[in-house]
């Protein structure tokens, strides 16, 4: 909200309050900046900043440069955990063409032990109602200065990538990874690994054939790579159910077992939230359901009709630069279920619900994660839900260690990125 200050009638203050009505750091920071522009005395500005829990401390924790040695191509370090388990000799179909283009390779940065400990503490405190930093969110820039790579180090990494012929595509505001494009020949020259074709389950994929290497001077800041293969992530919610398990509630017509949105609300005690003042039911929010398949909109309409819910057609959005993946069996089922139930639980008082389709077999194989980050960075929505994950065995860079930088940087900044 905006209102004029009695002491400073010419100053407009835009404040933001948390769930308990308390003025948060965004609101106070805006007041400081705007009043200082009107000539507010330095003492009052400093006092207001001190009232913001953790803000002064966070400003002191600026990421320090870590790359001290000269980047020397003759001395390299192998990065373990970046080789896909299906990139095996028995599935090998030979090298791809040297001009074959790999799009959106992501180089992930490794935080220091001190940064990681600080970040773990912040994540816990932000969710602890008794903490002074409860719901005191960071901007992406504050996250970068505290937990990301120092700008001078980032400049050295990007300069090295460009010297190898790679094209820099994106650098997030959080400075914890960099995205680039390149050819198979450039990957082989820079990362010392061939890109080869492999068959799996009757389909053709590509992948790096050896663990990548980087100059030793950069090894301490590099966690690993994503996007060196296009083996897709798999839906996590589709599991076989034992036929010995029999539900107690069945349809008298079909014999099938059903749970309606009303049943869900009762089971998970959502009705007090719906009836609270103001209601907590998703009003005015946008939800992004990130998936790897298109969906059949008539299925969603049928679900809503049979559930007694009003019509609400999801918005389908493709990841930029991708072709429509069409309907992908194994992915469409979970994507549809998640879209249906996200709307049902939120009572469909949403301004929009969306699924983002990303072709799981395209060179943009990490685009599910890409769109999660992009949605947060560009403030497309508040809640994000990924509809695909990893199945064992995977590479180390396909597990929580590599997804964590994406999710953590979004979690600590979450409400700030909504405004």
Which stretches are low in confidence, meaning pLDDT under 50 for 5 or more residues running? Answer: 1-59, 348-355, 357-373, 388-396, 415-419
Strand content: 15-25%
Topology order in helix (H) and strand (E) letters: EEHHHEEEHHHEEHEEEEHHEHEHEHEH
- Largest sheet strand order: 6-7-5-11
Annotation, overall tally of beta strands: 15
Work out the count of structural domains.
3
Count of helical regions: 13
Q: What structural class do helix, strand and pairing data support?
A: alpha+beta
* Helical residue percent band: 25-40%
Mean pLDDT: 74
Please give the alpha-carbon distance between the first and last residues: 12 Å
Largest sheet: 4 strands, antiparallel
Could you say which overall geometry the principal axes of the C-alpha atoms support? flat
Rg computed from alpha carbons, rounded to a whole number of angstroms: 25 Å
Describe this structure in words.
The protein has 419 residues and is α+β, with helices and mostly antiparallel strands. It has three domains: 2-52, no CATH class; 76-226, no CATH class; 261-389, no CATH class. It is built from 13 helices and 15 strands. It has helices spanning 25-37, 42-51, 55-60, 113-126, 140-147, 151-163, 184-191, 261-267, 271-275, 297-306, 332-345, 367-377, 400-412, and strands spanning 2-4, 12-14, 76-78, 92-95, 101-109, 167-170, 177-183, 195-200, 203-208, 213-215, 222-226, 286-291, 315-318, 352-357, 384-386. The strands form five sheets. A four-stranded antiparallel β-sheet has the order 6-7-5-11. The two termini are 12 Å apart. Mean pLDDT is 74; it is low at 1-59, 348-355, 357-373, 388-396 and 415-419.
């Amino acid at each position: 909200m905006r209102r004029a200050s009695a002491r400073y009638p010419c100053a407009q203050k835009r404040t933001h309050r948390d769930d308990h009505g308390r003025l948060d750091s965004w609101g106070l920071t805006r007041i400081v900046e705007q009043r200082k522009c009107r000539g507010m005395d330095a003492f009052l500005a400093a006092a207001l900043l001190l009232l913001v829990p953790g803000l002064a401390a966070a400003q002191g924790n600026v990421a320090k440069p870590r790359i001290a040695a000269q980047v020397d191509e003759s001395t390299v370090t192998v990065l373990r955990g970046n080789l896909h388990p299906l990139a095996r000799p028995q599935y090998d179909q030979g090298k791809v063409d040297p001009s074959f283009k790999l799009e959106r390779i992501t180089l992930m940065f490794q935080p220091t032990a001190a940064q990681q400990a600080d970040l773990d503490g912040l994540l816990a405190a932000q969710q602890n109602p008794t903490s002074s930093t409860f719901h005191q969110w960071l901007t992406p820039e504050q996250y970068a200065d505290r937990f990301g790579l120092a700008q001078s180090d980032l400049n050295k990494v990007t300069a090295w990538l460009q010297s190898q012929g790679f094209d820099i595509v994106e650098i997030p505001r959080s400075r914890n990874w960099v995205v680039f494009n390149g050819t198979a020949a450039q990957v082989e020259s820079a990362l010392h690994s061939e890109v080869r074709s492999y068959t799996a389950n009757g389909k053709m994929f590509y992948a790096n054939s050896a663990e990548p290497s980087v100059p030793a001077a950069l090894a301490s800041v590099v966690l690993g790579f994503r996007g060196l293969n296009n083996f897709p992530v798999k839906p996590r919610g589709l599991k076989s159910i034992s036929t010995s398990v029999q539900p107690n509630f069945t349809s008298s017509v079909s014999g099938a077992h059903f749970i309606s949105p009303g049943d869900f609300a009762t089971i998970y005690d959502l009705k007090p939230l719906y009836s609270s003042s103001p209601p907590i039911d998703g009003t005015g929010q946008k939800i992004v359901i990130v998936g790897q398949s298109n969906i059949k909109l008539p299925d969603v309409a049928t679900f809503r009709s049979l559930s007694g819910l009003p019509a609400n057609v999801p918005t389908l959005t493709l990841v930029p630069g991708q072709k429509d993946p069409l309907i992908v069996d194994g992915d469409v089922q979970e994507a549809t279920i998640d879209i249906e139930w996200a709307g049902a639980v939120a009572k469909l008082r949403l301004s929009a619900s969306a699924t983002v389709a990303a072709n799981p077999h395209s060179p943009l194989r990490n685009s599910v994660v890409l769109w999660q980050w992009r949605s947060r960075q560009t403030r497309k929505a508040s809640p994000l839900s990924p509809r695909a994950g990893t199945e064992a065995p995977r590479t180390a860079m396909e597990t929580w260690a590599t997804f964590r930088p994406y999710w953590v940087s979004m979690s600590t900044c979450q409400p700030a990125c909504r405004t």
